[in-house]
Write a structure and sequence with these properties.
Chain lengths: 507, 800
């Protein structure tokens, strides 16, 4: 035992019981704590970057006395970010063995995997089981899970052995299996145990997790060098892959004001603590055509951890949210704590999203500022909006090219257009020159041809392991052609909208 | 112990205790087992084999209690290692400065070539690979040293602090350059029959082509890992995730300069292997052992995924140049084929991999006049290694591509050209390596699949769709596979097993194979259960362990069940024969009249519980455990000429794939897949179907999204799943149907089964050919499609 007393106690609930750990450094991952400190080895490390899902665990939080479940990647999740939550791993699902020699009863998500022959080497299996458990808990016991939903919700879990068919079968089957005694979650006990963990007001000194916006901004002001995290699905890789160390971390995700999506007459405002799952749900609710795109943004465990605010503040040139938000005319609200004679107040400013970035992963934010809100205009009925993503793999891949276009016509003429592009420059970018060739022009083949040429000329993409510059340039233009064809009402020109059965029907 | 050389495949020798058991003198002392009335002929005992038993570890795997190497509780004092890798592809290693690394708190040592007590060259068969880079580095990622620290992250951080002074040398980064420089890891090999040149001249039509097929990262979900523990008196225990514990034992003892018997290697299971843990696991064990030896404490080395990508070998990339002749019906007349094999910086298994590519360049077709030249190119990249199919896929894809192109040239359906060229039954049935194909079932198999999948009608539907679809174009292909089963190196086709029956009637089986998810232990347990007539649940398969079954071959070449299943069957049969003789003595019947089924031992006179017979036999000093040994019959092969019968039999299959491509972006979807595959009489249909589906999807990944990209300096840019894309759930075709061919193996193989691990991988070539068909139908040039056929590759070809 280390005799040194640390303020950095990490507390969470496991199997209905509180677990308290001392001396957990602010940059340790949840996976390390599970495997190394607690010797809970069911949860595996496959890649250490949130791309394979072998490390998937499920977190639960009590919201209005009910548990809400989310599968997440424990390998890139900082351990302290689960303080005050319930943590479920594959060890926690089966019933305790009742009599000697008897194999314990399995949870339906486990039993279905056995019965469908869903495990071969078994290394990805606990991760799949936890993703299935998350689906089970969020679907009233695995009810109504379709193959399509299973494919979408499990796209963040890789399996190299089975070819997935038996795992998808298991997802569909688990709802029909009985829940053995001792396998279900005792919600009441878990909620009570969570309540008994008194929330820390501001987290620990080295892992700051303020629960109010004011406290968050004050902490930022006091610790401008602290590493800011808002889900940590990118920063987690700086720890696991770049071996960076953080003496102090400032986590924005507990500030309760920022956990909301607020709806106003002309825009919705998405708080920086809203995860990608909920943020995309809000966007898709307003614009159903974004559904497929939202499902292709990483895998579900990453969307459950990562935030839209984090994605935007991070400003990766290949982040998929920004081209979309640029096309939608989104803006960001930056906030800071301003000292005044009376003590202090929140100061804020609002920018168009495309004006946030100054270069490769650089932006205009002050050291004491935090990105707190993303404001997205509500859809206009006449606007025609599409977003396209090109990647090597359909699901859970990073774009080679991402193009989002919103256009409004008046009397057959382009009245408004905004185009966001990703993967083609050092920052997510707005295609101003292309927009200029379209504005005020009649929406016809000639305009499309001119705009296509303009779009290809506007950016000088690079060649890398995802795609060549030539391909990116060609495809940029071709996607604009697709936008034109879709605007003309053509329907069978997208793979995404076609299935084998629908292709047959139209053939 | 039984003399192994007494055992043969035809008539397993019964161990000596059987005679004693039946002898009157023993019978006098016999403790009578209680007998039960026979249950009569109405009852049929359920046999284990042929049933879709769940994987023996499935319940533990889903509960997270199945143990992998990194899950083993660590012994007190265990240290953790991380590799120091070369940042340049080729250069002179002038200096290694570890001072900054050693200054990091928690770092215990930096281990390099100077710390190797034995040979500084690995015991790999070509003896051409240093344990740690000595004075030159040969590829970006080559391990130069190891940092050992109190915990993993400290070791990994410190490894980046080691300063390397390397003087760069020119690097050879592709096969064309290597071939021009005659830079080879092994001498070129030529195999020919007839006169290809003359046949080409006579041929009414000719095609010439060049294309390339990329490598493939194994992406076993469990990365490479070894945990080495010093025991007393310079003995060692090695936990490692390996397909070949015997080779790890050999390599570790060689590097430590000690005898093989001082090293024990254990592997309960791997989190996936696919060939990537055949030789590559040995490196980690050797590195960890050298550190453990130097520091006199247990050392664990678990590679970070990115390091695993950078260090370990992959499937061999190939480049091809061919000239082929054919007549108006599409019949092949003359093939000249040159294969440039990217072996990386050392030979590793490149020789046999490249050989197997030659053996499978015919796939299913009779090549009358053929000349194949194979160049084993040495490049400054990772040393490429075994990967499911072992060169077979790189051979098969050439001829499949050629036949599609012939069909397109002649305006014929590619299926008809394929059927036209199949090996015959009575004639045209000898391969270019002089092996007679005796078990060919492809004509009826492909015909049946074409019928059940509606291939002909769909061909018309695809054409009709394409005529009216402006952007999306479809493609269709049916391709077969014929895959030779056996290690081409005949000596590896041997296996041993131990079956232990304990006095309570429970059974343990141990064999020289390894479990990597393929269900080997499940199948072996099924085989043993049936041999002893006990319920499947009574049989437990235990960890592979070099101290139990020595000198075992790698679990590879799809042969795990054929070899180890048979060896275990013989071991169980020996025990059963002992018990049969014992019971025959009791009942006064012949031993052959004693039946073992349903947990009972039955003669005409009595029915006894298995447990009672075992208890009684023990009391009568009957041996309740035995070894078993198997060597594959009939095979022989001349390594110099690459001729003979390298394979015991062939496994067959065929697949129909239908795809749709997007001509604006090159993106595509695999819409429908129908497979008919030959596993003989399946020992476990669910496991076999799992191998077929998994192999197919993995093969599809190889040919579609799994692109390895090395930059101009030899640095592998796709070194993690963020950039290297194996298939995910969304890539599974909406229609994905697998059926098993009903016929038993025509050769005498365990339970009439056939090997299944590798052959289905090549069925995915149907996806590649369907994509090329779609490109052609879209007006593009299918000759431009290299593999992997990424969206970019497809769009390039569509644009012609």
């Amino acid at each position: 035992m280390n005799s040194k007393i640390s303020a950095q106690t990490l507390r969470f609930v496991r199997r209905g019981q509180a677990v308290a750990l001392g001396n957990v450094a602010p940059d340790r991952t949840l996976l390390e704590v599970l495997r190394e400190d607690l010797q809970l080895t069911a949860t595996k490390e496959g890649c250490g970057e949130g791309d394979c899902g072998a490390c998937t665990v499920v977190l639960a939080q009590a919201v209005n006395g009910k548990l809400q479940y989310q599968s997440i990647n424990s390998c890139i999740r900082l351990a302290h970010s689960v303080d005050g939550m319930a943590v479920f791993t594959a060890e926690d699902l089966s019933a305790p063995t009742l009599k000697a020699g008897a194999s314990p009863d399995l949870h339906p998500c486990q039993e279905a995997m056995v019965q469908c022959h869903g495990s071969q080497c078994g290394f990805c299996t606990p991760g799949f089981v936890m993703s299935l458990f998350g689906m089970y808990q969020n679907s009233g016991g695995g009810q109504g899970i379709t193959r399509e939903q299973a494919q979408v919700d499990l796209s963040g879990n890789l399996c190299r052995c089975t070819g997935y068919r038996p795992i998808l079968d298991a997802a569909e089957k688990m709802g029909s299996l009985p829940l053995p005694v001792g396998c279900g979650v005792d919600e009441a006990a878990t909620v009570a145990a969570l309540k008994a963990l008194k929330p820390k007001q501001n987290g620990d000194e080295n892992y700051l997790r303020p629960t109010t916006l004011v406290a968050l901004l004050q902490a930022r002001s006091a610790h401008p060098k602290a590493q800011v995290v808002a889900g940590c699905t990118d920063v987690g890789l700086w720890v696991t892959k770049l071996h960076k160390r953080f003496e102090r971390v400032l986590d924005v995700t507990a500030a309760h004001e920022l956990e909301r999506v607020e709806t106003y007459p002309h825009h919705i405002a998405i708080g920086a603590a809203v995860n990608l799952t909920d943020a995309f749900a809000a966007l898709v609710k307003e614009r159903p055509q974004l559904k497929t795109f939202s499902q292709r943004f990483a895998g579900l465990p990453v969307r459950n951890s990562g935030t839209l605010g984090g994605n935007v503040a991070n400003g990766s040139p290949i982040g998929d949210a920004m081209p979309l938000l640029i096309a939608l005319g989104a803006s960001v609200v930056l906030m800071r704590w301003k000292k005044t004679a009376a003590g202090g107040e929140i100061a804020h400013r609002e920018l168009r999203l495309e004006d946030l970035y100054t270069g490769y992963r650089t932006n205009v934010m002050r050291a004491d500022e935090l990105l707190c809100w993303i404001k997205v205009p509500r859809p206009e009925t006449k606007a025609f909006m599409r977003v396209y993503k090109i990647s090597k793999r359909f699901d859970d891949d990073i774009s080679a090219v991402c193009l989002a276009i919103q256009m409004t016509l008046k009397d057959g003429t382009v009245q408004q257009v905004s185009i966001g592009a990703g993967g083609v420059a050092a920052t997510p970018a707005r295609a101003h020159q292309t927009e200029a060739t379209m504005l005020g022009q009649p929406w016809n083949a000639d305009t499309v041809m001119a705009a296509t040429a303009a779009l290809r000329a506007e950016f000088q993409p690079i060649s890398d392991m995802r795609a060549s510059a030539a391909y990116r340039q060609t495809v940029l233009g071709n996607l604009l052609r697709r936008f034109w064809l879709e605007s003309q009402g053509m329907t069978t020109i997208n793979l995404e909208s076609l299935t084998a059965s629908s292709l047959e029907a139209t053939a | 112990m039984n003399a192994r050389d007494k055992n043969s495949t035809e008539s397993p020798v019964v161990i000596s205790s059987r005679a004693d058991a039946g002898a009157p003198s023993v019978q006098a002392e016999t403790i009578e087992a209680p007998t039960y009335p026979s249950t009569g002929s109405g009852r049929t005992a359920l046999r284990a084999a042929g049933q879709s038993r769940f994987h023996e570890s499935a319940r533990a795997q889903v509960a997270g209690t199945a143990t992998y190497i990194d899950d083993i509780p660590e012994v007190r004092g265990t240290l953790h290692a991380a590799p120091v890798c070369s940042p340049v592809a080729h250069g002179i290693l002038r200096k290694l400065d570890a001072s900054a690394a050693l200054a990091l708190p928690g770092v215990r040592a930096v281990i390099d070539a100077g710390d190797i007590p034995g040979d500084t060259t690995l015991a790999a068969f070509a003896h051409d690979e240093p344990v740690f880079a000595l004075d030159t580095v040969m590829f970006t990622g080559q391990v130069i040293a190891l940092v050992v620290a109190d915990d993993v992250m400290t070791a990994r951080r410190a490894a980046r602090l080691v300063k390397l002074d390397i003087e760069p040398l020119p690097a050879v980064l592709n096969v064309h350059e290597a071939h021009a420089l005659e830079s080879y890891v092994l001498p070129p090999v030529q195999v020919s029959r007839g006169d290809a040149g003359a046949a080409l001249k006579r041929a009414p039509h000719q095609l010439e082509g060049r294309f390339e097929v990329g490598g493939q990262e194994h992406f076993y979900l469990e990365g490479q890992v070894a945990y080495v523990l010093p025991l007393e008196q310079n003995q060692w225990w090695v936990y490692t995730s390996t397909q070949h514990p015997g080779e790890v034992q050999h390599w570790v003892s060689h590097a430590l300069g000690i005898a093989n018997n001082a090293v024990t290697v254990e592997c309960r299971r791997m989190g996936g292997g696919f060939g990537g843990k055949e030789t590559q696991a040995g490196h980690l064990a050797v590195w960890a052992a050298i550190a453990a030896n130097q520091l006199k404490c247990p050392v664990k080395l678990r590679l970070d995924r990115d390091d695993d990508f950078m260090i370990t070998g992959k499937r061999h990339p190939f480049a091809y140049h061919y000239r082929v002749g054919f007549d108006d019906s599409g019949l092949l007349c003359g093939l000249e084929l040159e294969m440039l094999v990217n072996c990386g910086f050392s030979a590793d298994l490149s020789g046999p991999v490249a050989d197997r590519a030659i053996f499978h360049a015919d796939n299913a077709y009779f090549l009358e006049d053929v000349a194949v030249a194979s160049y084993r190119c040495k490049t400054n990249t990772q040393s490429h290694t075994a990967f499911r199919g072992f060169g077979g896929p790189q051979g098969v894809i050439v001829i499949e591509r050629i036949l599609s192109d012939i069909a397109r040239t002649l305006g014929l359906d590619p299926l008809d050209v394929r059927l036209r060229n199949l090996y015959g039954i009575e004639e045209r049935n000898v391969t270019h390596y002089q092996m007679k194909v005796e078990d060919n079932i492809l004509e009826p198999l492909m015909t049946q699949l074409a019928y059940t999948s509606g291939y002909r009608e769909r061909r018309e539907q695809v054409t009709a769709w394409n005529a009216s679809s402006p952007v999306i174009q479809k493609g269709l292909a049916l391709t077969p596979v014929k895959f030779g089963i056996s290690f081409t190196a005949t000596l590896f086709n041997q296996a041993g097993a131990l079956v232990h029956v304990y006095t309570d009637g429970s059974v343990q089986v141990n064999h020289g194979g390894t479990e990597m998810g393929q269900g080997l232990n499940t199948k072996v347990a099924q085989i043993v259960a049936d041999e002893l007539g006990v319920p499947f649940e009574r049989v437990l398969a235990t960890a592979s362990d070099t101290s139990k079954v020595p000198n075992a071959s790698a679990t590879a070449a799809s042969s795990g069940t054929d070899l180890n299943g048979r060896a275990a069957q013989f071991a169980a049969r020996h025990v059963r024969d002992n018990l049969a003789a014992f019971v025959a003595g009791l009942d006064g019947c012949g031993a052959g009249a004693v039946r073992f089924e349903g947990g009972q031992v039955i003669t005409e006179k009595s029915t006894r519980r298995w447990e009672d017979v075992v208890g009684a036999a023990y009391a009568n000093r009957i041996q309740l455990w035995s070894d078993g040994f198997y060597r594959t019959p009939k095979i022989h092969y001349d390594k110099a000429t690459l001729t003979g019968r390298p394979f015991y039999y062939f496994a067959y299959g065929a697949a129909v794939s239908e795809v749709a491509i997007d001509t604006l972006t090159g993106e595509y979807r695999v819409l429908k897949v129908d497979i008919l595959h030959d596993v003989g009489h399946s020992i476990n249909p669910a496991i076999d179907i799992g191998q077929i589906e998994g192999g197919f999807i993995q093969g599809m990944g190889w040919l579609t999204t799994e692109q390895l990209v090395w930059n101009g300096k030899g640095y592998l840019q796709t070194h993690a799943p963020s950039t290297y894309k194996i298939p995910a759930t969304g890539d599974v075709p909406e229609h994905f149907k697998v059926e098993l061919w009903p016929e038993a193996n025509r050769e005498d193989n365990v339970h009439g089964s056939k090997a299944v691990g590798e052959p289905p991988f090549m069925l995915a070539i149907s996806v590649y050919e369907a994509l090329r068909d779609a490109v052609a139908q879209a007006g593009g040039d299918p000759l431009l499609v290299n593999a992997p056929a990424t969206a970019e590759e497809v769009l390039r070809a569509v644009s012609g």
